[in-house]
Design brief:
With 484 residues, the protein is of the alpha/beta class. A 6-stranded mixed beta sheet has the order 1-8-4-2-3-5, sandwiched between helices. Strands 10-11-12-9-13 form a 5-stranded mixed beta sheet, sandwiched between helices. α7 crosses α12. The longest helix is centred in the middle third of the chain and has 20 residues. The N and C termini lie far apart (59 Å). The relative contact order is 0.16.
């Protein structure tokens, strides 16, 4: 169970990643109340979420020295927004199996000092983590994009998630303006929650209209997303969870009102390459993970008191909500944290903040249950966790429905295809003032999927200003397209 949760937001941008983690860890120990210091001093394992600004090596060993503890083991996750739930599930299994009694799980990013270093050549001064690998690595990774996707300009989250958004809009049949008004209202709900989160990175929280309106401080990034619809990675934040067995908490005298129980965690990935997925608007992995986690907890989505849906971009929230059966107009907010745009998007570590916020929400509502989701890469890796403020009737369980997901229909990616195709979805990447590249996903008559791009201003305008899904195009065999 979780007995302590700590968060830190460094607006002066003065702390290193390790200093952010140390401070978050100390806050987690204090948050546990009576007995927290005893559990903290006897930590048997330190698990660190992958950190872009302090990458590689064995950061847990360095943190152990800074914190004055002597863990038996250290672990580190691989890159991905799903990794905190992966580590949570792994930790709970090891505590339940008797391998560990107490664990510190934490992560941080100090992106602004790092960006300053890169731009100005100023050393950060915080050095690298200790060389060598930790005792355990948690998670998996492979090349995230197919060669054909990269050739068409798809290689970053800001390329892919707008692609999903346009597919969602087309599938709904809504006019573009009406759809974006709805997306603006959704994102404003995240901003509203962030406005009440003392650990949120942002300090100004826009309205739905401000989120969707393009202006000097809210430029278009990748159609149809403005800056205020994208994850904000330029943050300096840390979060930590102190976890232990019930026996350890009872022996240390940790008050039961500090206890929060992970009931179930499920994790899997959709077909790894976006181009191979049967649909751009569905996620069999989220559906399966949600069904398993909630099924084990004996609850449905309507029984969940608090929800935190991973929110790097609006399309991720919409896909997840659909698969989980959560209504985005529901009276329950879709987040307890505030989302990666407003609360802050510290790379792989956002969900550690979600879990910390969920811990507080569940403590405040005895008998409640919470659901947290996580996403890695391009709607690729997924995890769902159910937590409870009360001791669950069933023991913790972790689920991996990967075999079920792998059996789902899979498309072939057409390589170097020349000929007729039909637009399935699209986006346009912007420079500072104007769009520079338009990208399309196309379906061929035989069911294969192909990708192409164009730098032609008229073609880009036809994508942005029109309703191109379903229109015919000609692909040139070299990752280019033109309207038929």
């Amino acid at each position: 169970m979780i007995i302590g949760a700590g968060q830190v937001t460094d607006h002066p941008s003065e702390l290193s990643p390790s200093e952010l983690m140390v401070e978050a860890a100390r806050r987690a120990a204090a948050d546990a109340g009576t007995g927290g210091a005893q559990i903290f001093d006897g930590i048997e394992s330190i698990g660190v979420i992958d950190c872009m600004s302090w990458a590689g090596g064995d950061p847990g060993r360095a943190l152990a020295g800074m914190l004055g503890v002597s863990p038996r083991e250290t672990s580190r996750t691989l890159l991905g927004g799903n990794s905190p739930l992966g580590l949570l599930g792994d930790t709970c299994e090891r505590i339940q199996g008797g391998h560990l009694d107490s664990v510190l799980m934490l992560g941080a990013e100090a992106m602004n000092p790092l960006i300053k270093q890169v731009r100005q050549g100023i050393p950060t001064g915080w050095g690298d983590p200790p060389l060598g690998e930790p005792d355990r690595l948690v998670g998996m990774n492979m090349e995230a994009s197919a060669a054909a996707e990269m050739a068409a300009g798809l290689m970053l989250p800001v390329n892919y998630y707008p692609f999903f958004e346009n597919a969602i809009r087309a599938a709904s049949g809504e006019p573009a303006a009406a759809h974006m008004e709805k997306v603006g209202r959704l994102w404003a709900r995240f901003a509203d929650v962030a406005s009440r989160n003392p650990n949120a990175w942002a300090r100004e929280f826009p309205s739905a209209e401000e989120i969707t309106t393009v202006g000097p401080d809210n430029r278009m990034v990748s159609f149809p997303y403005t800056k205020l619809m994208t994850a904000n990675i330029n943050v300096d934040q840390g979060a930590a969870l102190l976890m232990c067995s019930v026996a350890a908490a009872e022996a240390a005298g940790v008050p039961p009102d500090r206890w929060v129980f992970p009931v179930a965690v499920a994790g899997a990935h959709d077909h790894w390459l976006v181009g191979e997925r049967d649909s751009l608007v569905r996620s069999p992995a989220i559906a399966a993970c949600g069904e398993l986690a909630m099924g084990h907890a004996g609850v449905g989505i309507d029984d969940i008191s608090h929800v935190d849906i991973y929110s790097c971009f609006p399309s991720a929230v919409q896909v997840s909500a659909r698969e989980l059966g959560f209504g985005l107009e529901d009276s329950r907010p879709p987040t307890v944290t505030g989302g990666l745009t407003f609360a802050g998007g510290p790379a792989s570590n956002y969900v550690t903040h979600s879990l910390a916020a969920m811990t507080g929400a569940l403590r405040a509502q005895p008998g409640g249950r919470g659901l947290v989701t996580a996403v890695g890469w391009y709607l690729t890796k997924h995890a769902v966790a159910v937590l409870s403020s009360d001791p669950p009737e069933q023991a913790f369980a972790a689920f991996d429905p990967q075999d079920q997901i792998d059996s789902q229909p899979r498309r072939e990616i057409a390589v170097d295809y020349s000929g007729a195709a039909t637009i399935e979805s699209y986006t346009a990447l912007y420079g500072k003032e104007a769009p520079t590249t338009g990208t399309v996903s196309c379906l061929l008559e035989d069911g294969r999927r192909a990708f192409a791009k164009s730098d032609d201003a008229d073609a880009i305008a036809a994508l942005i200003d029109g309703n191109p899904v379903g229109l015919p195009v000609q692909l040139d065999g070299a990752a280019g397209f033109e309207f038929a």
